[in-house]
């Protein structure tokens, strides 16, 4: 798997290098021709003219090398089915409203292991000398003054071209089916306190009496245009879908990979800004409870994400490189976030880049308890996590499924389908080899699949044939 991914990454890099070299080489050839004309620098002796020509060629070669370095390290190359391959320069990204993260530019909630008793709050800022990031939170209940609490957050330094820091905060010991307010903040480098807006969320129910609504989908078009029959049109397709989802008032939304098509390039961070902004502005709904002015609270919908091939570098991720931004922007393990925050809340706070060995296995897959109704497994379909019988994810699957047999439902979501509807994928047979026997043994009910940009809903399948004891596969 790692050899295939490395080969794919090299092939993609060579293609982009060839494009840059062809452009710069043509410019170099034009320059050489101009200097070689007799009328160019005609007043100089032939020897000095040749020296000038050699110096110019050397400078141009250095410019080619610098251009290649710049194209890899500062350009964003993305590929989205709705708009084809594209790229952006730093200059173009300066037009992005989130190019510089003023104050606190994002704050949102991520679904943890048990959404009835905890939640992960995340916010972004750009002050490199910020101290003691925190989140204040309290429960909102009619006729009751909430008990305001505060928790420290871990700071992760993102490797982007402009300063960007992500604060991860675990809110623990929450009540089920309860409405909470939270406000992020930190001490700025000039000694002032910076706070973000107050936002709201609701925890999941704990028992099996309350119904739970959720929505799962993937392969989003977070860009603002879509191409139909060669015509580029402005669209609000993703935002409109998010608005429709919010009308259902779901307990959470699952996003099944290929969400920004950033291809693991940190120069494509602005595409994540679009996605996060969509979650903040559109994945929210008005509560039945009201504030002191009689206005309903606007509740953020918690999200749970899995990794797709485009978060992992298209089909090519170097496991020795920096982790995909998805892992830092959407941490799902509240217990790990809480432990890291407690260690990092010192004076001055510990700001760090997460080492590769800490994220590759620990963040790519996770499980979520939905009250006493269901277990949702969020898995990595062979993108950054090895797929074999003794892989850590395989052991994780066995353990989680063994402990969930008392629950009425067992669900899983991942990116590449085990049973594709329209195409054949090289990952699908290994997934069926390693996952399907476990899923059938532990009576998984539904698998939510993505990657194909189409919709399917199978009959109950077991080993490729219909069976009353099989699994339903939805999505694509």
Question: What does the model show?
Answer:
29% of the residues lie in helices and 27% in strands. The protein is of the alpha/beta class and 476 residues long. The strands form 7 sheets. Strands 5, 6, 9, 10, 11, 16 and 17 form a 7-stranded mixed beta sheet that branches. Residues 1-10, 315-320 and 346-350 have low confidence and may be disordered.
Fold topology:
Layout: H1 2-36, H2 46-73, E1 76-80, E2 84-88, H3 90-93, E3 104-110, E4 119-125, E5 131-140, E6 149-152, E7 154-157, E8 165-171, E9 179-187, E10 193-195, E11 199-202, E12 214-217, E13 225-228, E14 231-234, H4 237-247, E15 252-255, H5 269-282, E16 284-290, E17 296-300, E18 303-305, H6 325-329, H7 334-344, E19 351-352, H8 356-359, E20 366-370, E21 374-378, H9 392-402, E22 409-413, H10 428-434, H11 436-441, E23 446-449, E24 456-457, E25 461-462, E26 465-466, E27 472-475
Parallel strand pairs: 7-19, 11-17, 12-15, 15-18, 21-22, 22-23, 23-27
Antiparallel strand pairs: 1-2, 3-4, 4-8, 5-6, 5-9, 7-8, 9-10, 9-11, 13-14, 16-17, 20-21, 24-27, 25-26
Quaternary structure of the protein: single chain
Low-confidence stretches: 1-10, 315-320, 346-350
Rg to the nearest angstrom?
A: 25 Å
Taken from the alpha-carbon principal axes, the silhouette is globular
Number of helices: 11
Number of separate strands: 27
**Ends: how far apart?**
22 Å
**How is the main sheet built?**
7 strands, mixed
Q: Roughly what is the average pLDDT, rounded to an integer?
A: 81
Per DSSP, what share of the residues sits in E-state strands of 2 or more residues? Answer: 25-35%
The computed structural class is alpha/beta
Portion in helices: 25-40%
